[in-house]
């Protein structure tokens, strides 16, 4: 009897497995078009963000200029090898973990054949990603909230969002021809300006979705820069008309291009998943997704991916509570967080008072040149309405949870790193919504 029961169980299990294998693939929600590094980044990120993605590759090979000619040497994004760019370099270096030394070595020599193998290898292992090589897109038509795409194979596919990662922005051109909008501008007719320095006088820095260092220019790319015009509500272009990529030598701007592609892939997946348009994207939700895949929002070059506190520092940095500073380090201009510097009350006061009305009372008549742990605990307790149990919680998590050095001491002066991590953990300012312009929404 026992043998019969086991036989029946394994027969049923086998039937289920066969049925699952024979099951038709889920319909795609996003199409990415192109064959270069930005198309790779966009396609992989869209699929990793949980959306079925078709990557239509208008070539027989993935990689573009990276896989032609001789080995490439890139010095851009010094200490900013993050996101999809870092994942690619990890494959080039053939290491299990991302490290500064491995990234530096990989950038010194990028052999074309190995680069192609890395692109192919990563793409083949990503769930929810289907590659269709050596095809072009012939036509795009509006289909409800989404798009119907006709391939050169005559196959027609309906999707909710598109990413145009082609060098000539083919999809945008096709849509302009096929979709008529009376007296309404299409993307490319507007002039979005993107500075090549972080400007804290304008809140747009809070919306960063990619970072770059090219020569002496160190900056982030605001979300609005990769968003389509309203008439193309769910079509994202990795190379807008005014793309900074074109201002530099192609290979040096490659990290920027890949990180912009990653942002476009995440944004397209967001629109498809939530069945919404680009202008409805929750900036913080999208940024959180990029952080989850090791992207950066602010180009802090002294806080690398190997830093245990990089995520909370990125989140707090994106609120403006702590601002980075351009400075000369080791003979190079860098954008620095300065994690070991001490913190005054006047430094964190302006933005905290904007976000938390209650904090205005705490800061009144205070001018503390160097905040102690006791001061920061007092601030958090007052704003978050916490009691003395917070002391015990932080003491227990001091080394293991927060990865802080030294000992828990109420009279000790705290560093920018420590204050940023504690504020991120207990006040969570990153959770306060912001507009596409970077203004806080209360």
Number of strands: 12
Helix content percent band? 25-40%
CATH T-level topology of the largest domain: FAD/NAD(P)-binding domain
CATH superfamily heading of the largest domain:
FAD/NAD(P)-binding domain
Report the uncertain regions: 1-24, 180-191
CATH class descriptor of the largest domain = Alpha Beta
Q: What fraction of residues sit in β-strands?
A: 5-15%
The domain count comes to 2
Q: Any idea what the CATH architecture of the largest domain is?
A: 3-Layer(bba) Sandwich
- The gyration radius over C-alpha positions equals 24 Å
Shape call? globular
- Characterize the biggest β-sheet: 5 strands, parallel
Count every helix, treating DSSP H or I runs of 4 or more residues as helices.
Answer: 14
Element-level helix/strand string: HEHEHHHEEEEEHEEEHHHEEHHHHH
Cα(first) to Cα(last) distance is 66 Å
Mean pLDDT: 89
What would your notes on this structure say?
It is a single chain. With 442 residues, the protein is of the alpha/beta class. The protein has 2 domains: 27-211 and 221-295, FAD/NAD(P)-binding domain, CATH 3.50.50.60; 345-431, no CATH class. 37% of the residues lie in helices and 14% in strands. The chain contains 14 helices and 12 strands. It has a 5-stranded parallel sheet with strand order 3-2-1-7-10, sandwiched between helices. A 3-stranded antiparallel sheet has the order 4-5-6. Helix 2 runs parallel beside helix 7, helix 3 packs across helix 4 (100-108) and helix 12 runs parallel beside helix 14 (416-426). Mean pLDDT is 89; it is low at 1-24 and 180-191.
């Amino acid at each position: 009897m026992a043998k019969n029961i086991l036989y029946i169980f394994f027969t049923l299990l086998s039937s289920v497995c066969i049925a699952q294998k024979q099951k038709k693939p889920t319909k795609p929600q996003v199409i990415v078009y192109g064959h270069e590094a930005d198309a790779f980044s966009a396609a992989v990120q869209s699929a990793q963000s949980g959306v079925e993605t078709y990557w239509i590759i208008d070539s027989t090979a993935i990689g573009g200029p990276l896989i032609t000619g001789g080995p490439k040497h890139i010095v851009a994004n010094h200490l900013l090898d993050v996101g999809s760019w870092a994942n690619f370099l990890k494959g080039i270096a053939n290491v299990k973990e991302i490290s500064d030394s491995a990234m530096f070595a990989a950038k010194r020599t990028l052999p074309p054949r190995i680069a192609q193998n890395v692109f192919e290898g990563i793409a083949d292992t990503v769930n929810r990603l289907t590659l269709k090589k050596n095809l072009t897109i012939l036509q795009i038509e509006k289909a409800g909230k989404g798009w119907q795409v006709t391939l050169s194979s005559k196959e027609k596919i309906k999707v909710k969002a598109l990413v145009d990662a082609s060098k000539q922005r083919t999809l945008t051109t096709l849509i302009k021809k096929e979709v008529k909008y009376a007296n309404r501008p299409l993307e490319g007719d507007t002039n979005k300006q993107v500075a090549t320095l972080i400007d804290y006088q304008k809140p747009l820095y809070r919306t960063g979705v990619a970072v770059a260092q090219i020569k002496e220019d160190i900056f982030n790319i605001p979300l609005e820069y990769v968003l389509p015009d309203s008439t193309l509500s769910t079509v994202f272009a990795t190379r807008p008309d005014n793309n900074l990529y074109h201002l530099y030598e192609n290979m040096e701007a490659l990290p920027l291009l890949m990180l912009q592609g990653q942002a476009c892939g995440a944004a397209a997946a967001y629109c498809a998943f939530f069945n919404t348009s680009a202008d409805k994207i929750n900036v913080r939700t999208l940024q959180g997704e990029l952080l989850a895949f090791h992207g950066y929002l602010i180009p802090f070059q002294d806080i690398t991916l190997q830093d245990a506190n990089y995520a909370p520092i990125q989140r707090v940095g994106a609120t403006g509570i702590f601002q980075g500073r351009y400075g000369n380090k080791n003979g190079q201009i860098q954008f620095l967080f300065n994690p070991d510097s001490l913190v005054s009350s006047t430094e964190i006061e302006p933005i905290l008072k904007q976000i938390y009305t209650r904090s205005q009372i705490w800061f009144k008549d205070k001018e503390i040149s160097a905040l102690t742990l006791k001061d920061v605990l007092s601030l958090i307790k007052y704003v978050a309405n916490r009691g003395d149990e917070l002391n015990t919680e932080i003491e227990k998590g001091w080394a293991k949870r927060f990865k802080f050095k030294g000992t828990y001491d109420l009279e000790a002066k705290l560093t920018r790193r420590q204050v940023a991590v504690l504020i991120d953990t207990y006040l969570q300012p990153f959770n306060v919504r912001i507009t596409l312009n970077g203004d806080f929404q209360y």
